[in-house]
Design a protein that fits this description.
The protein has helices at residues 37-45, 69-87, 94-109, 127-145, 150-161, 176-184, 192-200, 221-237, 243-252, 260-269; strands spanning 2-5, 15-16, 20-21, 27-29, 50-54, 278-281, 286-291, 300-303, 309-311, 320-323. It is of the alpha+beta class.
Length: 332
């Protein structure tokens, strides 16, 4: 299995590996079948940009680093329900959120690494909530590597899940951090720490962030963790950039937006190339990333010309030069 852009899809050589869902979580297209060109046009019209597919070169790649789609979709549904409840001035479904926090903490805890499902692989109406789930998954991965307690992980997860909750309460996007904080700090079941994650996720250590222009040492570490995960996820899903390019951008923000230590940890703990990525090595041979074991930045690869698989961690002279994009299909 691998993830491709919808324009790369070839109905002669590929079939869906995971279902495509609409805004009501209904299956638009089931896994295990080819996509007819007519349906492909409809997916493009819906702005669905990514597909999980199976083809000959991705055989045997499981992408275990990604949370399974049903769990991901259930999390999105809980967030959607929560945002709608707040917008309608109803009570926050706190028990469902607490159960979701436990689920996501456990999901991250059993994986070596976390690779995100792009929000642009589902209907546009769900992407705001998928974004929050993805930010939470990344935040938990970094929080776990910081060695924080299970209770703190749950607070971090709750804050990350609800970091944009203020957008359900105000149309002024620039005010959503303050509005969200003021709401969350009054919810008895939510810790003040979780509220501060929502409050400070747009603060930067150079003092140019929002809403208070705080500097290094004044911003809570968990808010910084949520902030770097938020930036990464937005560039991956909204801007459509590949993970390694987003990581290069993140590294340029060391010492300005985020602390040097946090950027270093993020770079070490978030894979640059996810399984299923086609790459060109510095020996000018094409390969596909098959799995991540041990060193997250030196994955296993399989040569496309002869099927040989090896670990880049054991071959230090081999480097990934760039991603290889499949030939784009012309859709008339």
């Amino acid at each position: 299995m691998r993830l491709i852009s919808v324009e790369e899809y070839n109905d002669k050589t590929m079939q869906l590996a995971r279902p495509i869902y609409d805004k009501h979580k209904r299956v638009l297209l089931a896994a295990g079948r080819a996509i007819h060109p007519t349906y492909l046009k409809k997916l493009i019209a819906m702005d669905i940009r990514y597909l999980f597919i199976e083809d000959s070169i991705s055989f045997g790649i499981s992408m275990e680093e990604m949370v399974d789609v049903p769990t991901w979709m259930d999390a999105i549904e809980t967030l959607q329900m929560s945002f709608k409840a707040i917008a309608n001035k109803e009570e926050l479904p706190i028990r469902q959120l607490q159960k979701l926090v436990i689920t996501l903490v456990n999901e991250v805890g059993k994986r070596k690494a976390i690779c995100l499902i792009p929000t642009s692989s589902i209907a546009e109406e769900l992407r705001e909530y998928a974004h929050a789930v993805n930010v939470t998954l990344l935040s938990l991965q970094i929080g776990r590597k910081l060695g924080i307690s299970q209770m703190q992980l749950k607070d971090l997860a709750m804050g990350a899940l609800l970091h944009d909750i203020g957008k359900a309460l105000t149309h002024r996007v620039e005010d959503h951090m303050v509005v969200g904080f003021e709401y969350l700090r009054k919810v008895r079941e939510i810790s003040l720490l979780a509220a501060h994650v929502a409050y400070g996720h747009h603060e930067t250590i150079d003092g140019n962030g929002k809403p208070r222009g705080m500097k290094e040492g004044e911003i809570h570490e968990f808010a910084q963790v949520c902030g770097i995960a938020n930036l990464y996820e937005n560039m991956l899903s909204k801007e459509g950039l590949p993970p390694h390019e987003v990581m290069e951008y993140i590294m340029t923000k060391s010492g300005t937006m985020f602390t040097t230590d946090l950027v270093k940890l993020f770079v070490q703990e978030v894979p640059h190339y996810i399984p299923g990525t086609k790459v060109l090595l510095n020996n000018n041979r094409k390969a596909i990333v098959t799995k991540i074991i041990g060193n997250l930045q030196r994955p296993y690869i399989r040569y496309l010309d002869n099927g040989e698989e090896l670990s880049l961690a054991d071959h230090y002279t081999l480097l990934i030069k760039e991603m290889v994009i499949d030939e784009v299909t012309s859709i008339n």
